[in-house]
């Protein structure tokens, strides 16, 4: 990078290093207020559009999950990085419902056991950190939910393939164009793929959080209607 290009980069991303370009505190705060409101507006717009376009699929997924739970099956959840924490959150929501009167439903987050994850990653490879656990813990009729903002996580692709062979129901949460996850769904190798169509990782993750909270609610609503879940 040339010195001129380096200076331009520095001025664009680190203006506080250049005293002559430092904004006055009042101007800075005004800019931040505008940015804050714009980010909140964008977050609302992304979520509203996503749920409007996917409402029928979300209901279909929630109903199939409710049927599986009614049959005594369990939910396995996995993801990487921020999506790993979302996977933990999903499992807690189902295992420890915060609404009084809602039944605890069996859910396991496959990223929780660091000894297991690191053992498999070290001995076999990171691409199989979830597959080994699915083989040991999963059974026909169970549910696998994989979360990825890009839809391209290789260990999720391996997990879905293993779950398919073992006849688990498979669900993917992705973002942007859905990546490999969407390709699996289009090829019939993934039962459901819910994609948040934006390149912003933050907006994708925010929508994923809203999605699994709403699906949790829908699952419990369906479980209260036996005629829907027992056919």
Q: Number of DSSP helices?
A: 9
- Spatial separation of the terminal alpha carbons: 65 Å
What would CATH call the architecture?
Answer: 3-Layer(aba) Sandwich
Instruction: Please state roughly what percent of the residues sit in beta strands, choosing from under 5%, 5-15%, 15-25%, 25-35%, 35-45% or over 45%.
Output: 5-15%
Q: Shape, please?
A: globular
Provide the fold topology.
Layout: H1 3-13, H2 25-70, E1 75-79, H3 82-95, E2 107-109, H4 114-123, H5 131-137, E3 143-147, H6 154-165, E4 169-175, H7 179-186, E5 192-196, H8 201-223, H9 226-229
Parallel strand pairs: 1-2, 1-3, 3-4, 4-5
Helix pairs in contact: 2-8, 3-8
Features:
231 residues, alpha/beta, Rossmann fold, five-stranded parallel β-sheet, 9 helices, 58% helix, 11% strand, globular
Structure description:
The protein is an alpha/beta fold. The protein has a single domain (54-229), classed as Glucose-6-phosphate isomerase like protein, domain 1 (Rossmann fold). It has 9 helices and 5 strands. It has a 5-stranded parallel sheet with strand order 2-1-3-4-5, sandwiched between helices. β1 (75-79), α3 and β2 (107-109) form a beta-alpha-beta unit. The chain is globular. The mean pLDDT is 92.
Write a compact overview of the structure shown.
About 60% of the residues lie in helices and about 10% in strands. With about 230 residues, it is of the alpha/beta class.
């Amino acid at each position: 990078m040339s010195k001129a290009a380096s200076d331009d980069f520095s001025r664009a991303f680190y203006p506080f290093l250049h005293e002559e370009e430092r904004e006055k505190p009042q101007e800075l705060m005004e800019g931040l207020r505008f940015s804050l409101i714009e980010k909140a507006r964008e977050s609302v717009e992304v979520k509203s559009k996503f749920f409007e376009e996917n409402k029928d699929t979300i209901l279909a997924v929630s109903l199939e999950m409710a049927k599986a739970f009614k049959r005594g099956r369990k939910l396995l959840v996995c993801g990487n990085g921020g999506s790993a924490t979302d996977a933990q959150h999903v499992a807690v929501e189902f295992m420890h419902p915060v609404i009084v009167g809602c039944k605890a439903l069996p859910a396991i987050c496959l990223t929780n056991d660091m000894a297991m994850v690191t053992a498999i990653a070290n001995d076999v490879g990171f691409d199989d950190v979830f597959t080994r656990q699915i083989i040991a813990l999963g059974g026909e009729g169970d549910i696998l939910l994989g979360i990825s903002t890009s839809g391209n996580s290789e260990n999720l692709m391996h997990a879905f393939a293993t779950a398919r062979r073992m006849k688990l129901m498979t669900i993917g949460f992705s973002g942007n164009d859905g990546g490999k996850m969407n390709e699996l769904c289009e090829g019939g190798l993934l039962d459901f793929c819910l994609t948040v169509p934006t390149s912003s990782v933050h907006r994708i993750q925010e929508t994923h959080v809203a999605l699994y909270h709403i699906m949790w609610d829908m699952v419990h609503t369906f479980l209260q209607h036996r005629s829907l879940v027992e056919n």
